[in-house]
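Suppose a colleague, Dr. K., hands you the sequence of a protein chain of 292 amino acids and asks what its three-dimensional shape might be. Before reaching for any lab equipment, you can write down a predicted structure in token form. Begin with the sequence itself:
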Amino acid sequence: MGKKIAIIGSGFIGNSLGKYYHDNGFNVTFYDISESTLSDLKSKGYKVNDSFKEVIEDSKYIFITLPTPTINGKINLIAFNETVEKIINIDNLNDKIFIIKSTITPKTTEELFIKKLINNGKKANQDFGVIYSPEFITEIAKTWDKKGEEISFGTEDRVVIGEGDNNKWGNLFIEDLILNKDIPVVRTSYKEAEMIKYVSNTMLATKISFWNEIFLLSQKLEMNFEDIAKGVSLDKRIGKYGTVTGKAFGGKCLPKDLDAFIGFSEEFREMDILKSVKDINDMMMSEFGVRE
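The predicted structure, expressed as tokens, is then:
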């Protein structure tokens, strides 16, 4: 069997990630607190285990793909913190690599993962590695793209690696787990990698709200929006993303990440553009509904 991988949190991202590595010959075990999730995976022939301790002890690479919902404008890290507490209680973590893929606000990896482990006697980034590598896949519904598609981990356009001073673990991650050797790799600090994920999603949200405003203006002026969008989006610096207009953006990531990033950022400065992006999307949602 191939290298042993654990998936901690088998929702949309964990499910897609685990299946990707399974299909490429890795020995993948899924873990989740949901019995129905594990039962469904098991019925489809995938390896599952409801023992957190056993899954961690039996794996070399541990992907953390936990939900990080936004509640009242702030990221909720309850599942993340509970997982850290479970890891603390495992005696031998030597030579393992934890790869966090959950969307988390800057400094979370350092403050809520690495420091907690170190404070409890675990030699993070010495005896074992910690990497933050956000995911950039998306589920595209037919209302956005006429055929509908899911961009998988094999088709991402870049890999971002947030790491500490000891780059040994990042080197192993690249060597063993990046199967497409031609894909661009960005190596940076933990907090900068966390920031890259949020800036990516809020940029996409901004494009959608911008195009929705142009769509509404075009309607008022009795102009053909499709022609306008085509003429503008052919500029390679701009592109066509967001030009499917008329409804608010929804989905699993953009709304929650926009809210969480505004809530996080406003501890440091006002985010006027992103607040306008949210206001436009809220208006579109109220008047025209949501495009999932």
